[in-house]
Amino acid sequence: MTTTVKTQEMKVKSGTTDIGISEQNRRGVADILNRTLSDEFVLYTKLRNYHWNVVGPMFQPLHEIFENQYDEVEEIIDNTAERTRNMGLKSIGTMNEFLQHTTLQEQPNEYPNAMTMIANLVGDHEALIRNLRNDLEACEKFGDMGTNDFLTGIMQKHEKMAWLLRAFLEDE
Ligand SMILES: [Fe+2]
What we know:
mainly alpha; Ferritin; binds fe (ii) ion
């Protein structure tokens, strides 16, 4: 076995992630990813809740659009947690931690009308977009253009989902 292969093998066995970003910076990126994951989980749950409980003449289109969006958010959740693992760090994975780290608010015991549901969701998408926009700069400072690119893609998905919902609130 050559020395290079042996060194590489030792690195992998010791759990070292040698991708050109210091451990401190990777931890900073993981904090961002874990907070994003927490926000996505709260939004996912809210979309499920509204999919189940929406009523009124807009039932059918809203029931469907909420389902489309929780499917999309579910994919974001999986990719975000796995991105943290790509950085060599642990992803959080308990409801307890998601609630500790999220910046979004839940409204327990409330069953809002359809228009309020849409307004709440637009607000959450927009909050996520604003958070992500700040995170992009932080990732750049951490020297992690991979996560910068990854989060840019997520931000664009939320921009589109917010637009699809906002259209229901706008006058013709
Ligand atoms: Fe369903």
